[in-house]
């Protein structure tokens, strides 16, 4: 039950420039249907992160509009958007506080059991309880001694607990050990299930989870079909 959102997202003639006169996106069109997983691939600097930044409304289109369930997202509140849309970014952001608080973020009503269930589902539970203070470990401003892979798993646990209708993943390019890599792949698979998802994928294993692959090439767009 997703409450008041279906989860259909449309970019309609979206243009965007960080600096005036330097368009990164030029009349970009895309419809992602409710429940669909779309993978964005393409060269560095092609505009992939810009597309998801716009979807998250960290930035807004310079021209054109982004519609959610057919309604321009600017007609809704940012709080509404962010309670229906979850994201795991390339450099996962953890804030100072404990691991538990970081997973709870935005879901302060959740019980300890729910936190643990979310962590188990994304395979974060085992490494968390190996630490002396477990879920009460302070991550510190920069995430303490947690690796990038571990921080991503905590972000996945947060996303699972928040249960957003729309999920966005900007896959980390940094190398992690094969075991963590496998845990992250499994976490991705679980989080994508049943949601509308945008994934910026660098790994073939992630790309293969998509229903559609969108190749971004210097502002131009093409689709390829999964074999
Ligand atoms: P990568 O694969 O390296 O992550 P990307 O496809 O995600 O690349 P974007 O980050 O969307 O590419 O960048 C698209 C263009 O916009 C690039 O030319 C980049 O330099 C520029 N750009 C990105 N972020 C900013 C910003 N905050 N301010 C100014 N220009 C930016
Ligand atoms: Mg990027």
Automatic annotation (TrEMBL):
This is ATP-binding cassette, subfamily B. Residues 9-227 form the ABC transporter domain. The chain holds residues 353 to 579 of 579 of the full protein. It is found in: Cell membrane.
